[in-house]
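Problem: given the chain below (146 residues), write out its structure.
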Amino acid sequence: MKVILKQDLKGQGKKGDLINVSDGYARNYLFPHGLAIEANASAMNELKNREQSAAYRMEQEKKQAESTAEALQGKTLKIKARGGQNGRLFGSVTTKEVAEEIEKQYHVSVDKRKISMDDIKSFGSYTAEIKLAQNVGTKITVVVEE
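Solution.
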């Protein structure tokens, strides 16, 4: 019997997978526990529609990420920070501060978790990589000045 899983099932498959199981296993375990539904025409149609909508949503997110990456490509971000002797900063410049400055200066929203950079603890110029989506990313230059 073909069934569509409603939850991940160890040894069988992931949520949304179409699998073939024995009739007894489906009727006595999967259906009563709400782990699967029978793969009839309406369920198959719903599964296909769900997959298409997920693919469309992923495509839209990728287009948005590409436009954001294009807007930030090769940009220089200037951040003002307070420092002490020998060009050292009080504290450090974090990805949160970089994300806020990108929002202020370029009016582009970037999640701080998508920014990867070395610790910035002194004045100077640094490179930060922004990974917006799978295979979509860009690099910006972060200049820390007093």
